[in-house]
Structure formats: C-alpha cells, structure tokens
Amino acid sequence: MQAVGIVVEYNPFHNGHAYHLEQAKKAAQADLVIAVMSGTFLQRGEPAMVDKWTRTKMALSGGVDIVIELPYVYSTAPATDFAKGAISLLSAVGCNSFAFGSEDGSIQPFLNTFELIDSHRAEYDLFIKDSLKTGASYPKSLHYAYEQLSQMYPAPYIDLAQPNNILGFHYLEAARALNSNIKPLTIPRVAAGYHDALKEDASIASATGIRKALASTNSLQSVQNVVPTATFDYLTDWHTKYNQFASWETFWPLLQFTIIRHTPSELTRYAEVTEGIENAIVKAAKNSSTFYSFMEKIKSKRYTWTRLQRMITHIYTGFTKKQLQSFNAPSFIRLLGMSSTGQAYLGQQKKNIELPLISRVAATNDAMLAIDIHSAELYNLSIEQGTKDFTLPKDYQTPPIRC
C-alpha cells in the first residue's frame, strides 16, 4: 500500500484541508493518507482550540486514514525542528511521499531554493550575521540573507516571506538531512491566505480566519460554510460542554499565576527564554489583566509575537532548556486514530516501521512521551477550570480512535 504523509494542526479541520487531502492523495497516487498532527500546543506557541482527540475525529471524518501525534518537543519548536520531527515520523511510519500546501504550488522552485542555500551556506550565514547586527529579528535576517542570495544567483525560487512556503522549505531540508527517500509534493493553497479574515459567502477560509471569526462573533454559525459538517458538529459539541474554545486568553489566569510564582532568573531555565526578556515578562504579567495586554507590553523589534508565545508555552508547561537539549530525534510513534484502511496498512507494515508504535501509553516509559502527557494534563486543567465534571479524555485512559 502506498502512503502519502501530511503535516497538520487542524486547528480546526476546514474545507481547505479537505481539498488538500484529496489533492495530496491524487498527486501521490496513494492508497491512504497519514497525518502527523500537533498535540495540545502548536508551532506558533499557543494552545489548540480543541483537544487532540477532537481534532483526530475531525481528521478521520475528513478522510485521513492514520493520525499520529507530533510530540510537544517538535510541535512547539521553530520551523526547522518542527519539520525535522514531522518528516522523521512520516519517514519512520513508511510514507512513500509527503505533500504540503504552499503559496507557490510547484515543487521545482522549492528544490531550486534548497540547492541555492545549501550550495552557498557560508555566504548565507554571513548575510544572516550582518542583518542580526542591525537589530533585525532572526526571521527577518533569514529573509534578508535569502533575498541577497537569490539576487546573486537568479532562478525560479519560492517566496520565503510566505508562511507555508517557509515550512515547505524546511520539510525538504529535513528530508535531505535525514537521507530519506520520501518524495516531496506540494499542493497550491486555494481561496484564502494564511492570515485572511473570513469572507461572507466563502466556502474556504484559513484556520486563522476561522478562529478570529469565532473569537469576534462567538457564533458557530459564522463558520458553518467553511468547515465540513463533522467539524461543525464537533465544534458545537465542544462549545456546548465548555462554553469556550482554548486560547491563551482563556488560559490567562493560570498562565499569569505560573509566571508570577517565578523569579525572573528562574524563568531563564525554560526553553527559548533568552536572557534579558525575563524581567519584562514578570513585570508585564503583574500588570496585565488579559493575555493580549501582556503581549503588547513585552513585544519588541527583537522578539516576534510567535517567538514570545513559544517562550510562554514552555514557561506554562515547565519545559526546560535542559530537557530540550536531551532530545535528538523522535523516539516513538504515538497512534491517535485510524480508519479501517489505516488499520490494514499498519498490520501490513508492522515489521517495517522504524520506531516503537504506541497505542496505549500506560505501560510506556519514555521521557519524550512523558512531556506530551504532562502538557495534555495542563491543557485539560485550563479548559476544565470552573466546570463540575472532568470530561476531557486522559492520555492514560484513551485508546486510538477508530472509524
């Protein structure tokens, strides 16, 4: 059986994702689709709007055959490590190819871009260093270095100012670094840009646009046209139970407490917290009534909003620099859900899968998995605050979802 892999967050699963699934399967001529999906906290440093089990159900309803979890160590990492973790898992589970959505929509410019940077690494690194000296952020310095190189060696390249192109480039980079035979494919994004707001009468919108619409209108009907029926039903069920979707704004009381209970120097233990920002974080937390006002106080030219959110995520979950440095690669494959086709594939490929396949975590002693379980418990705690019943699935008790 031929499997195509995709890297997803499904926050939430929408009509654009359904299109991507269909096109990926067709382009790869695959028998099934395997999705590696972020767990409870995401790459932009924020909690997923609904938990991983609900998003797994959305994925399976939408046509994914196997859902595996991207561990916290990688799901909350900068793009390079995020891609490394995801492609490692897709390769280990036996995918013949992987497909990603991009603004460019053609694979050759990605290959050209990879060869450009790989062949001129010393010049690229020097341009980055020069830009950083001016006070520019690291992402802006990367873009500056790329622009300089692409002008020196003209060819059809991708636009690395576009978020999905950036991730696509890092997926290619990861596959090459792993010496993997997994074949890259890209599917053009349709109708909605990454940050576009929801448009009236649209049938496709970005996940960001959907979340913004829900936050501003508090009406599920505002997004009904841009998500599959199953997604709408799962979102409705979640909102009925908890009366809110997860966000740093809803987590703010516990996040604020977590920050304030530390001294500034203690904060520097946590992953991605660089010296110099810790005092500002504690001061802002003491003087902010909302997460947004807190972020407005600490953002600067040096630190992007996303980078700050990842720092905050690690402070909230207690994920330290020492822990981060102890991991080099994924050590397991965590199965979250599967269709009958997915189950047949796993039965067929069982002996060829390169990492331990975990379906139940209770008997598993793995440091990376322990972090996933811990982060899920903290996520659940924030959602269930103020409710009478603890109804969110617990990792120790939840088997893979079958459909």
TrEMBL record:
* Binding positions (ATP): 7-20, 101, 164, 189
State the compartments where it is located: Cytoplasm
Question: Sorted alphabetically, which keywords does the UniProt record give?
Answer: ATP-binding, Cytoplasm, Ligase, Nucleotide-binding, RNA-binding, tRNA processing, tRNA-binding
Concerning NCBIfam families, the annotation shows: PRK13670.1 (NF010191)
Q: Which gene encodes it?
A: tmcAL
- Known EC number: 6.3.4.-
Name the Pfam families for this protein: HIGH_NTase1 (PF05636)
Function, as annotated, reads: Catalyzes the formation of N(4)-acetylcytidine (ac(4)C) at the wobble position of elongator tRNA(Met), using acetate and ATP as substrates. First activates an acetate ion to form acetyladenylate (Ac-AMP) and then transfers the acetyl group to tRNA to form ac(4)C34.
Protein's recorded name: tRNA(Met) cytidine acetate ligase
